[in-house]
């Protein structure tokens, strides 16, 4: 009996020692925001309420009310829905041509937004030269821009390697496999797809979004973050990953009076274990308005107060319970 007791005691001690020595995973926070249009359309560019007129040279103005979230995370990502270049504005008969000064890339760097997707339907508004000029402005500001069907691997200050793949509406399995292989070869531990997709001005997702989002996660992506609808859409967990179908507008200079000014910051915790494997942890949702005043959009995203109807409305859009129908924005002209 004594030997049995000693054996049980020894086993218990070993278990306790192993438990005590088991290190906790490191935790990292990635922040995601929606569309960043750091400029205006040619029809609004010369008005007193254009993005350039409101912001002027105060590059800290647009993110003044939200920068604290980005400064305290490990990486912030969004979708740059405009061209950054010098020169004349232009218009096009089928919609907006969005352009801002190259200096406005400093809005991103000053507010700790480190990565933006360039895979969208406005980055080409001024042709290939406009894309090149935009990329040069971002590089000068220390911001990573990811072109359509390209990959980038970014290492955070604390050593987490994040692979980013930018997609415009559709891609195929071969392209996804290639992207994953490229990023893994560079040591990427977390894989993020920034995807421009879906239907504009709709709160409802489409079947092709489901298909692509799930395919990306099945191929190894941890996070799929969507843009293009200009409205918030649901967040769905799938097979250990997560799909943010649309984070709507965030800092959007392309519309003075949008019918829906709701937006959100999503902060996703990532856990990195001692063996190098990673998993998604908790997620924090920060409901916001795209403007600090209403009804006019002043291009200064501002958090809603918790417990208000606005705050709760954002949460309902993100959990898929919102019942509203998407409507076209009221463009001022």
Describe this structure in words.
The chain has 333 residues and is an alpha/beta fold. 26% of the residues lie in helices and 28% in strands. The protein has eight helices and 17 strands. Helix 5 links the parallel strand 6 and strand 7. The longest helix is centred in the first third of the chain and has 20 residues, at 2-21. The N and C termini lie far apart (90 Å). Residues 1-20 have low confidence and may be disordered.
Topology at a glance:
Layout: H1 2-21, E1 26-37, E2 40-41, H2 51-55, H3 67-71, E3 75-80, E4 83-84, E5 98-100, H4 105-110, E6 115-117, H5 127-141, E7 144-146, E8 151-155, E9 161-168, H6 173-185, E10 190-196, H7 207-218, E11 223-227, E12 235-238, E13 241-244, E14 249-252, E15 262-272, E16 278-289, E17 302-303, H8 309-319
Parallel strand pairs: 1-3, 1-14, 3-6, 4-5, 6-7, 9-10, 10-11, 11-13
Antiparallel strand pairs: 1-15, 2-5, 8-9, 12-13, 15-16, 16-17
Which key features would you list for this structure?
single chain; 333 residues; alpha/beta; eight-stranded mixed β-sheet; six-stranded mixed β-sheet; 8 helices; globular
Short overview:
The chain is α/β, with parallel strands linked by helices and 333 residues long. 26% of the residues lie in helices and 28% in strands.
- CA gyration radius, whole angstroms: 22 Å
The H-and-E topology, N to C, reads as: HEEHHEEEHEHEEEHEHEEEEEEEH
| Largest sheet features | 8 strands, mixed
Query: Roughly what percent helix?
Result: 25-40%
């Amino acid at each position: 009996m004594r030997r049995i007791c000693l054996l049980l005691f020894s086993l218990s001690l070993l278990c306790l020692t192993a438990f005590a020595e088991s290190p906790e995973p490191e935790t990292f926070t990635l922040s995601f925001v929606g569309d960043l249009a750091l400029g205006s359309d040619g029809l609004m560019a010369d008005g007193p309420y254009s993005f350039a007129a409101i912001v002027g040279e105060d590059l800290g103005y647009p993110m003044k009310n939200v920068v604290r979230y980005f400064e305290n995370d490990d990486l912030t990502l969004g979708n740059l829905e405009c061209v950054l270049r010098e020169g004349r504005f232009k218009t096009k008969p089928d919609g907006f041509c969005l352009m801002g000064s190259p200096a406005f890339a400093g809005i991103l760097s000053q507010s700790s937004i480190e990565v933006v997707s360039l895979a969208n339907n406005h980055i080409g508004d001024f042709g290939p030269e406009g894309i090149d000029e935009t990329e040069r402005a971002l590089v000068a500001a220390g911001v990573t821009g990811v072109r359509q069907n390209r990959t980038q691997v970014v290492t955070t200050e604390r050593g987490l390697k994040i692979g980013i793949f930018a997609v415009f509406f559709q891609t195929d399995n071969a392209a996804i496999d290639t992207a994953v292989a490229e990023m893994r070869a560079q040591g990427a531990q977390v894989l993020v797809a920034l995807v421009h997709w879906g239907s504009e001005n709709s709160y409802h997702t489409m079947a092709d979004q489901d298909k692509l989002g799930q395919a990306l996660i099945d191929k190894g992506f941890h996070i799929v973050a969507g843009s293009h609808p200009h409205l918030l859409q649901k967040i769905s967990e799938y097979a250990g990953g997560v799909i943010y179908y649309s984070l709507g507008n965030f800092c959007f200079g392309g519309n003075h009076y949008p019918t829906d000014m709701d937006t959100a910051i999503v902060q996703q915790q990532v856990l990195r274990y001692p063996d190098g494997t990673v998993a998604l942890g908790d997620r924090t949702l920060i409901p916001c308005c795209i403007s600090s005043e209403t009804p006019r959009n002043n291009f200064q995203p501002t958090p809603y107060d918790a417990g208000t109807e606005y705050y709760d409305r954002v949460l309902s859009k993100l959990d898929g319970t919102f019942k509203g129908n998407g409507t076209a924005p009221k463009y001022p002209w």
